[in-house]
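Subject: sequence -> C-alpha cells, single chain

Hey, anyone have a minute? Need the predicted structure for the following. Not urgent.
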Amino acid sequence: MKRVFLCWVMLAVLLASCEPAHIHNDRVGFGLSTRTNAYEWAVRLGAGWFLDWGTRRWPREAPLTYWQTIRLSPEGGRPDHQDLSMLVRENPGSTWIIGNEPDNPYQDNIPPELFARYYHDYYQKIKKVDPTAKVAVGGVTQPSLLRMKYLDQMLLHYREAYGVDLQADWWTVHGYVLREQMGSWGAGIPVGVSEDEALGLLIEPAQHGDIEIFKDQIVNFRRWMAQNGFQGCPLAITEMGILLPAEFGFSEEVIGQYLETTFSWLNTASDPEIGYPLDEYHLVQRWAWFSLSDPEFPASDLVNLQDHQITRIGIAFGLFTGRSQ
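Reply:
Had a minute. Here:
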C-alpha cells in the first residue's frame, strides 16, 4: 500500500510540474485502445489530443483535448439517442465523430445510404442539445478513390433524403495505405460498393509504408472536399501509422522514420486551391497516430505499457513535438 501511495505522489508531482500551455502540440494526438492514463503519456509525448473510439465525460478546460466517437452498426448507434443527450449536456463544446470506418465490414459496416441517415439524425440531436458542439464525419478506412466513391454515394443519399447538402464542422479520415481487394489483406471493398465497379488500390505489403501514396491520398481527399463544397471545413486524420509487423520490413527504425517524414509533411503541406482557408491553407489541421499501445496491432506502439517506457517510435513522436524524453 505504501508503494502504491508513493507512485501516486510521484505522478501528482509530475503532472503538477507541467505547464499545460507548453506541454503539447495541438495538432498532434494519438489513439488510445488500452486502459492507461492518457494525460500522463500526453505530457511525456507532447500530444495535444486523443480519442479512444468511444465516449466519456471529459472536462472542457482540461489541457488535453478528447474527441468523442459515436459507433455505428446496421442495428443502430452506440450510445443511443437517450444516453447521448446526457453525454452531450455533460460535455459542452466537445467534438463528436459520427462513425468509425463506416465503409469497413470489420468496423461499423454500414452502406452509404444508412450512413447518411445515421449522420443526419445524430447531427441534429447533438446540435439541438448543444449548439456549441462540433460534429465530424467519421473517417473511412483510407482516403482512396474507391472510398471517395463510397462517400459520393453517401452525399447523394443525404441530398435526396433531406433536400439539403450535408453539414459538418469537421471531416475526418484514416490515413492508411492498404490493398483494396475482396479476400486479400488490407481494407477490402467498401460496404455497398460493387467489386465489379471498384478501381481498388492493388498494392503489395511492402507498399503499406509508401509515403508518396500516403501524400497523394491526402491531397486527393482535400481536392474531393473542395469539389464537394467542403474546402471551408477542417480535416483531421484520426488514425495513421503502420499496421504490418517487422517480418514485412517494418522495424521500429523504419516506422520511426515513417512517422517523422509524414508528420513533417502534414505540418507544412498547404495549397490555396484546396487547403483550409482559416489555417493558412494547410491540408490537415489535426492528426492522431495509431496508437499509444494496441495489443492487436503493436507495430506502431508509442509506449510499452508493461515496462512503462516510451518506444523508439514514441521517441520519434516526442522529437517532433519537442518533448524528447
